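Researcher: Going back to the complex we discussed earlier. I've cleaned up the inputs and rechecked each line, so this should be the final set. Can you rerun the prediction on the complete assembly and write out the structure?
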Amino acid sequence: MSDHVADAFRLENVSFDYEGIPAICSLSLQIAQGERVALLGPNGSGKSTLLRILDGLYFPTSGSIQFHNSELSKDNLNNQQFCFDFRRRVALVFQNPDVQLFNPSVFDEVAYGPLQLQWTKEEVIRRVEETLAFMSLSHLRDRPPYRLSGGEKKRVALASVLVMDPEVLLLDEPTATLDPKSQSQVVDLIQQWKGSSKTVVTATHQLEIVEDIADRVLVLEAGTITAAGTSSEILSDTELLLRANLAHAHRHSHGGEVHSHPHLHGHTHSHDHTHEE
Amino acid sequence: MQDSYLEKTIRGLSKALSESLFSEQVARKSGLLQSLDPRVRLGGVLLLVVAVVACRRVEIVGASFVLATLLALRSRVCLTILIKHVWLVVLIFTGIIALPAVFITPGKSFIIMRPVPLSISASGLYSAAMLILRVETAATLTATLIFCTPWTHILKALRFLRMPAEIITILTMTHRYIFLLIETAKQMFESRQSRTVGVMPESERRKVVARTAGVLLSKSMELSNEVYLAMLSRGFRGEVRLLSDFRMAGRDYAALSAFIVTASMVVWIGR
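Model: Rerun complete. Updated structure for the full complex:
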């Protein structure tokens, strides 16, 4: 893919640590423009840290990261023109929507990004109204975010970045803690971008959505990529999933006989039975 | 059986949350203040408060108090709420401050208390009444404004009155995250209660409070760091930009004029 399409991100030997505790270890990675990538990994594997590095919030302690061939460094992001261009093109949806919703009303929340990027007032209002309607949030426009349900908060958090129509969307556990209906709405939204020029990087450990949201899957363990492949390749590698704590042995009985099989929460569930002797 | 300490704390936190909901409900009703542009509401109330503070005649301040009460009632603020949440609270706190003035203000003795060498002077009573009435009026006006105006609109209106954007952001964030922290504290106490059997000794209660405060502090620090990152991620570069979509109508100009005239009259007649 990256032979024909420009790279959105190129990471070379990137390492990052939290006050001496390594989070990302010598990671090299290329993400092509328009690619949909899923980052799979257990808790603490470095998925969220990697997304923050891609969003220019954390800077590598060693190694380099480029966005469309421009160095993603603190110095470059201090440059207003580069910063505005990067922030408009790349957006991150945080795992905890409460972190992202700090404005007094839903309307203000969605308008926050465009206002920071100094869009005109008319443009801000028009785009916010459109985005609220697109996300079916218009009826909540004057509500304070702390009065919303978990699913509504997540949708507002998504709307607050979609309003800028970013080229790259970085999603940190976008479906975690959502009810099934809200989950499928988010998955449908990501599916809509298939084949478009939008690059979507999703960190998740929910295997059942991976095939729908990603063309390429990277498995992260202890800050390094331990496996990469298409969704079907990775999801069919039961041994890898078990080793990476992404699946667990599940025991149940059929007609009095006890079975044990890897529990994948996905389509493969009923086909991967290994009978326990 | 008497409520446990944890139950009381949980009830207090829940009450704080539900009271904030009450003001949102009043703000959504159709009333006199609610029908005006938030900038006119804020500006008008501020003008009246300044006028009442500047007024030197108790009967004019009394008339302003009646006017403030009428404004509250026409804005669908319930009288019981005013009495319980504003007037009584103000009376207690201002009363404590005003009480010494009744006895120590020099003037012709009005009531002489025996055998204690204390006398109440007419000028002392006047000063105390003046202080209490002024504070009651100002509190009624500001409480009515807060009950009838969503917090978001007050903040935007403050920005229009040239309050620095940084202060507006601090107020916004404080208001936003105080609810999150109250909710977190409530959950922490509920979780503690679900694992508590029997009566907790006083020393243990103090430890629970200290631990909860410590955890909340570290959580709020972690949260503030995350929020800052979320702001950076959406283009924040140290300058706050807010969107004001208020529109003034003929009614707003008329109301603003009425506020200005009333405030001027209070100052002029009460000079």
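Model: Worth noting: Residues 214 and 234 of chain B are 31 Å apart (CA to CA).
Researcher: Good, that matches what I expected from the previous run.
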